[in-house]
Amino acid sequence: MSAPVKKSRLWRATYLVEIIILALPTLAIMTLVALVGAVYCAGTTLASVSSAQSVSMTLLAVVGTLTCISGLAAIFKFCRLSLVYIFSGETTLRNYRREFLVGLRLAIAPLVVTIGFSIFAAYTDPAGWPLLPHLSGVVLFIPITHLWLALREAGRATMKESG
User: For the chain, what are the domain ranges?
Assistant: First the structure.
């Protein structure tokens, strides 16, 4: 077995450990919050439209719904890219570069909201500080950075092959 193949398998195994330890608990929490948030915000939107409430409440509910849906789409993209990387390696992953960038753009608004809410919650209750990295989604930056480095390495390998 050649050295690059061993290195690739080692990096993918490391990534799998990162996913199991860091990403799965965080993604489970964030998926549940996004699903409940989307249903709640959509219900609030329908209730505020039907009861002639203020326009700002309706707008806030619509933005909340779209933020939750954006978070769910980003989680789906991240899981899909993770499966591609773990089972197919860097060479196949380079075909998904655009999907990675779309997933990052989809994740910006939900991450800003969750970081803000979790910092506020930890500030009001000091016992929440140990959970802050998982509740805010900050621990997802480790596997996302790993995925980004794998995409970069695949791009470099392509440039070396083409001359």
Answer: 3-24+72-162
